[in-house]
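Chain A, query sequence.
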Amino acid sequence: MATQIQTVTSISISTDPVENLSFRRLPPFPDDIPTAPLHRLSLSALRKTVAESEALFAASKNLGFFYLDLRDNDLGNALIQGSDQVFGIGPDIFDLGREKLAGYDHAAKGSIMGYKGYGSQVVDEKGNLDRNEFFNKRDTHNNPGCCLKIPKDDILGISQEPLPQPDIIHQRADLLKSFMTNAHKLVTLILTHLEKHLQLPPQALTSLHRLTSPSGDHIRLIRAPAQPPSDLRNSLGKHTDFGSITILFNRLGGLQILPPPAILPSGQSPEWMYVKPIRDHCIINFGDAMTKFTRGVIRSNIHRVVAPPGQQGRETRWSVVYFGRPEDDVVLRGLVGEKKYGEEEEGMNAKEWIKLQGLRLRNANVAGKEMGLEERRKLWEESGRGT
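Chain A, predicted structure.
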């Protein structure tokens, strides 16, 4: 008989006071801007106490986002140092120039990896185009532009047909492999805690996310140049992530989430709220695959990226992200509770499903780039992102 997991329908979320953990040599995040109510958890405590594990589960169900303090822990310290080094690769990649980087756009090969230049995504109901560059690659690839994806399978030598990549990726492969391996350890640790709280057998989730098995895991390096104050627009439209667990390292504001009504005070309508970056912390969020595995117990929350607030808006915004995804051959089906009447399960494996979602969005955006403003507005509405 399947175990039923109760979800929390309402909760008052608050964060602990944060000591001065702003980023050196960057303008501070404004004090007068409301920020999203993320739990602030500790990796060190997560490995020691039941209470921290329970807090992780609560945050996973109610908001699907939380801060994780990486200090005072060997794995955490390695991730802090590794993320700093990956940040350092970014300028070398993007300085190659758009013309050269365009040669790493692999959409014609049916791949969501590779380079994406500015203005190829419709980001809002007004039909505006993005101001991000993407370079999506499997573990061994660095992505120039607002988003640089470095795929796990290429870096670890799992891919049978690695995609072409800039020379600097080959030159820094050891660094990328180390960071990716440590990030995956964190994904595994979080999944292990969730298995216990979901009352699943050991390795029910971790066995679907093994480091050495083919998957869509990748590092993404993102660059969003400063925008003219008179013409601010979203860098990335509202969306949920496709995969299981996302680990974000961010130094400037810009990420916003739309809190679900259940965690807000009675009568308060949801509004977009900034997620303030905190030094030596990463931001964890869950994707659609985890929602499918848990039949909605774990929340994949909608989010977007806008221009950084205040004086931070004068700076180029960089982010380093690790996307943990199910293994390619894993079928996306519920592992928790009973299948609900009328509930449809994908019936396809993770590789097919993620590729379908990514290419569907990318193809729509490519078409949008060639459309007029009114056509782009209609495309936004039809994409489902306008709801």
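The chain has one domain: 39-337+344-382. The first strand starts at residue 39 and ends at 42.
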